[in-house]
Amino acid sequence: MQTPPPKSNCKSILTCLLVFLFFQVFTGTLDAQEWAKKMFATLEHDFGTVAKDSMQEFRFEFTNLYKEELHISAVRASCGCTIPTAEQDIVKTFEKGTILATYNTKAFAGARGATVTVTFDKPYFAEVQLQVNGFIRTDLAFSPASLAFGEFSLTDKPRMEFNVSHAGNTDWMITDVRSKNAYYEVEIIERTQLVNQVGYKMAVQLKGNIPVGYLQDDLIIVTNDVANQEIKLPVSGKVSAPVTLSPSSLLLGITSPETEINKRLILRADEPFTIESLTCDYPGVTFRTGSEAKKIHIVPVTFNAGLSPQKIQATITAKVNLNGEIILKCPLSATVE
């Protein structure tokens, strides 16, 4: 007759089994989080130093890199200083989604930060943490709270006036205005000084070199305040062009190696124009264009999947000439497997 193993050995085996199962579940959870994190272009944003009551927003962009449709079941913030919104709760394969983080400068002041948690329940459960930080100054105010230009054409070059006021030291001065992009011409119209208050009336004009699409940027107001030298003023708008490109994106789906896919792009305007160049940062895309000026250009596009399985995220760039150079962009995506 076979003798049963000692109880101590049974306990050891059971303990090892439980530890193994724990690490399997724990590792699976980590893998799920990494799967979701890969979709986001960035996981953190610093609003910098901003004025009280100013409009501060940032969009965390993500791309569905997978075959299955995504569903966002919830978004939440660890602090009321940030209000998160899922602008699309369902995101299909290769489509983009955004999580809008609104920094609550009306109700809060000083150094504030929050963790925004995005919860996916389809195709698998996962949570992604996004970090938001900033510093809200109560002695500064912008009027209007942000430079919202709305929708405008490249040829409009819109101009907007705004006011900056500072309460406190009357030696406070604006020394420069900067931006990450050379889209703006800024001028100081006048500086006023009252008891314990300094005010500036300023103007910004947009140049003609802004790319077509949504504008989300900041003017950085540089001051002589050593402790808080820079303050951000948000700039937003939607730039439309006299030339349109359709479709707005080429979603080629799932294909096999060595496959060739033929599509077309349509460029359209009210006046005749020429195509100077069409390029793609994925080398397997070619175009057939003409040199004549006309109102509608129908351009054949050939996509070659290549030899190896891969996920392709690329951008098509069109440079056209209609009373000056205009740049249009079209995202391209495909999965080769």
For the record, the count of structural domains works out to 3
How big a fraction of the residues is strand? over 45%
| Number of H- or I-type helical stretches | 1
What integer is the average pLDDT?
88
The largest β sheet comes out as: 7 strands, mixed
Count all strands and give the number. Answer: 23
Helix coverage percent: under 10%
Radius of gyration: 27 Å
Overall structural class, as computed from helix and strand content, comes to mainly beta
Name the quaternary structure: single chain
Shape: flat
The CATH topology of the largest domain: Immunoglobulin-like
Order of helices and strands: HEEEEEEEEEEEEEEEEEEEEEEE
Low-confidence stretches: 19-30
CATH architecture of the largest domain: Sandwich
Measure the end-to-end span. 57 Å
What does this structure look like?
The chain has 337 residues and is mainly β. The protein has three domains: 94 residues, Immunoglobulin-like; 101 residues, Immunoglobulin-like; 94 residues, Sandwich (Immunoglobulin-like). The protein is built from one helix and 23 strands. The strands form five sheets. Strands 17, 18, 19, 20, 21, 22 and 23 form a seven-stranded mixed sheet that branches. A five-stranded mixed sheet has the order 1-8-7-3-5. A hairpin with a 6-residue loop joins strand 20 and strand 21. The longest helix has 31 residues. About 4% of the residues have low confidence.
